[in-house]
Amino acid sequence: MEDQLKEVPELTTHDLQSLLCSSERDFLIRNNGHQVKVESLKGKKVGLYFSASWCGPCQSFTPKLVKVYNELLSYSKFEVVFVSADEDNESFNSYFSKMPWLAIPFSDSETRDGLDKLFDVSGIPHLVILDENGKELTNEGVEIIKERGVEGYPFTPERIAELKEQEEEAKRNQSLKSILVSQSRDYVIRSDGKKVPVVELEGKTILLFFSLVTYKHAFTPKLVEVYRELRKEGENFEIVMIPLDDEEPSFKKEFEGMPWLSLPILDTTCEKLVRYFELSALPTVVVIGPDGKTLHPNVAEAIEEHGRKAYPFTPEKFAEIEELEKKKRETQTLESVLVSENCNFVIGNDGVKVQVSELVGKNILLYFSAHWCPPCRAFLPKLIEAYHEIKAKDDKFEVIFISSDRDQTSFDEFFSTMPWLAIPFGDNRKGSLSRLFKIKGIPMLVAIGPTGKTVTTEARELITYHGADAYPFTEERLKEIEEQYKKMAEEWPKKVRHALHKEHELVLTERVGYNCDGCNGMGRGWSFLCKECDFDLHPKCALVDKDEDMDNANEIKGDVKGEDEEKNPKEGWSCDGDVCYKA
């Protein structure tokens, strides 16, 4: 069998008998144990489905393939053959029991392995589609099923090209109908299952809410609030959810508590719209105007910050909001930032309250951070060092910790390591400050000047690159630092050789930003660079020839990494590199 398969890749057409049979077997099986002769597939299109029960993406994709398969049963000659990558017969049987199609018996590992090699299967799920004559139509069946669903049939290159042209035509002549209606569906649904014709939504402002409803995002309650306010006011608008979930029972349970409309779960239009609107983040809320044209690609942030005031999400409304924000920034004071209703104080780690009024006239850093966040813990020693250096020179300086910790205990533990002030854990000001300064990732440092106006939201980077020398974080100070570096660079050698990079010379180069391959610290301004190898050293690392210093730096890197691995991000956040982001 394996020898037969090795000869096939040279051919454009496959013989199903040779492909799917062995010397002992000329049949495939159903999940009830019934045998089906391979010769019965003659004249049919066949999808070879490489999959396994242990594979998460496979578990997500299989229901989509089942849906398409069942829809095609009534009017097409299409069959699927499961080629399992499961590790034991019990797992195979359990997974196969959810499939309405055929399979190669699990016991025939030789045929299964041969097909893997023949079709160069490097990842699963993988779906190869053959035409009625055994000719390979595509090895991108998974993508086609996800994006096109039953509309992709008969899965020929011509059909896919036709669908792409239709999409381009739909973009040129976009309407609500072209966005939401498919060949098999002209309605959306309510949470009670009632169908609402898309035609009834024409002429309204429509928000397309792309969401994973089973993932509880803090944005959803805010959107519910805005929806109910606008409906109460009689505004001519509606929300249509575009669910990206793959488990129907969980979706139905969550959808019950939502007041708006939705596309049906697993509807192929959901995947089409992900591609159509080039979705890159969740949540995303696309605004479709009364004329069916796209007004805005994503107003999720505007809704989060401004709520109902952002409606109707037109360019004129956003210009109006920006003008109000500009005036707000121009009149900003420390008290307008940190005082809210009866909350007019911050606390020391001894619990003593400090009135915000006592901090007026000082340079303030707002430190958004959390104990569960590895980049935050890695950055903290650097900030503490800079804090003490700055305080020694200027007492009119303070840091205020704004926590994203999970609970009071975590907050207390983390805050106890800090020499500065904090907003109490659970304080409502944390949310308003995060919105005001558009906090999407932590750690983040916002510098507030003596007048109460924002100096920069990038103080974390300045501390990382320059330490206490960056104080007071103004543009003028940064220009002074740049001039200092230029004068220092004039005295440095133009090229050096270093024990950490023996292959090539390192050339003194002006850099916007880089990561030092010696101490693993961030750098900017000047680097000793090997462009060919993309290898950077801080001048302070490049101009010392002490291997033990480098060893110590590597030990420090290892210690930090080890500590980071012990912590998990808070739910709703994900960590990437040196920042943890809101998911």
TrEMBL record:
Database matches in InterPro entries: C1-like_sf, DC1, Nucleoredoxin-like, Thioredoxin-like_fold, Thioredoxin-like_sf, Thioredoxin_CS, Thioredoxin_domain, TryX_NRX_thioredoxin_dom
Bilayer-spanning residue ranges: none
Keywords assigned by UniProt, alphabetized: NAD, Oxidoreductase, Repeat
CDD domains the record matches: TryX_like_TryX_NRX
Pfam families recorded: C1_2, Thioredoxin_8
Gene Ontology molecular function, alphabetical: protein-disulfide reductase [NAD(P)H] activity
Family in the record: Belongs to the nucleoredoxin family.
UniProt cross-references to SUPFAM superfamilies, sorted A to Z: Cysteine-rich domain, Thioredoxin-like
Region (Disordered): 553-573
Catalytic activity: [protein]-dithiol + NAD(+) = [protein]-disulfide + NADH + H(+); [protein]-dithiol + NADP(+) = [protein]-disulfide + NADPH + H(+)
Protein species of origin: Abeliophyllum distichum
Superkingdom assignment: Eukaryota
This enzyme's EC code(s): 1.8.1.8
Enzyme class: oxidoreductase
Protein name per UniProt: protein-disulfide reductase
PROSITE patterns associated with the record: THIOREDOXIN_1 (PS00194), THIOREDOXIN_2 (PS51352)
Domain Thioredoxin: 1-165, 328-483
